[in-house]
Write a structure and sequence with these properties.
The protein has 245 residues and is of the alpha/beta class. The chain has helices at 12-28, 46-56, 70-84, 107-115, 133-146, 167-173, 185-198, 223-236, and strands spanning 2-8, 33-40, 59-64, 92-95, 120-124, 163-166, 203-207.
Length: 245
């Protein structure tokens, strides 16, 4: 079983289309899958958009009535997937974003690595297609800004929020019941990748191209401010032994 985890906040224009594109992927390459959408207290029409999809797709929506943030939503999705599986060493979880930045067509590439024995597979982008020079620079060098705390052999893009991991890895990377992820945004992705890599026997990356052309709203991130925030966040990450230099 594959559990497709999609954190979402106010992504009504794209989340439904993303679900349908994922369905098309598994129509072409059949696999048993279940969609898990984490609705982080969206204030737009996300709830209404998702309602009809629940009737035609294997979909569960985990809605938070209070905004808890990206890391909390991701962690909740992964923990829920673990509770659904009775074969955590055989089942996998795939994490991707609801804004359509991540192309579902990359999912088969992730699964080929997983099927060949990888415990953690990260879809890696170097920022091609980003809307400005500053955003391309930020996306390309975000892993470098994180490197003082997160270095994972076999993974260049530790800022990626698009990955596949064995469910047993997700369970071991998020021990106990208290929240584990401490950062937000790309730093939270790096924290998750580092924790998962620390309990994985084999880690690999696959290339992907982020679809900035499909985003429904402009990026409102100032690259310089984001870079400084990412640098500060990296220094505060709590990384387990064996996951960082």
């Amino acid at each position: 079983m594959l559990y497709i985890c999609i954190p979402s906040r106010n992504e009504a224009p794209t989340v439904g289309l993303l679900l349908w594109k994922i369905r098309q992927v598994f129509t072409s390459a059949p696999r048993e899958y279940h969609l898990l959408v984490g609705d982080d207290a969206s204030t737009d029409a996300t709830r209404e958009v998702l309602a009809p999809y629940s009737k035609v797709l294997p979909l569960t929506v985990l809605r938070q009535e209070r905004h808890r943030g990206y890391a909390h939503t991701v962690e909740g999705l992964l923990r829920h997937a673990v509770t659904l599986s009775d074969r955590p060493r055989r089942d996998a979880v795939i994490l991707l974003q609801a804004d359509f930045l991540h192309d579902p067509a990359t999912i088969p590439d992730l699964l080929r690595k997983f099927d060949s024995g990888a415990d953690l597979v990260v879809a890696e982008s170097l920022g091609e297609g980003a809307p400005s020079r500053g955003h391309r620079w930020l996306r390309r060098y975000a892993p470098v800004l994180l490197r003082r705390r997160v270095r994972v052999p076999g993974v260049r893009d530790t800022a990626s929020g698009f990955l596949a991991m064995r469910l047993s890895v997700a369970k071991d990377a998020l021990p106990g019941s208290a929240p584990v992820l401490t950062a937000e945004g790309w730093a939270a992705n790096a924290e998750l990748i580092a924790r998962a890599a620390a309990v994985s026997r084999r880690v690999e990356g696959v290339p992907t191209r982020e679809r900035y052309d499909l985003l429904q709203r402009p990026l409102d991130v100032d690259p310089w401010t984001a870079a400084k925030t990412l640098w500060r966040s990296a220094g505060a990450l709590r990384i387990p032994a064996g996951a960082a230099p």
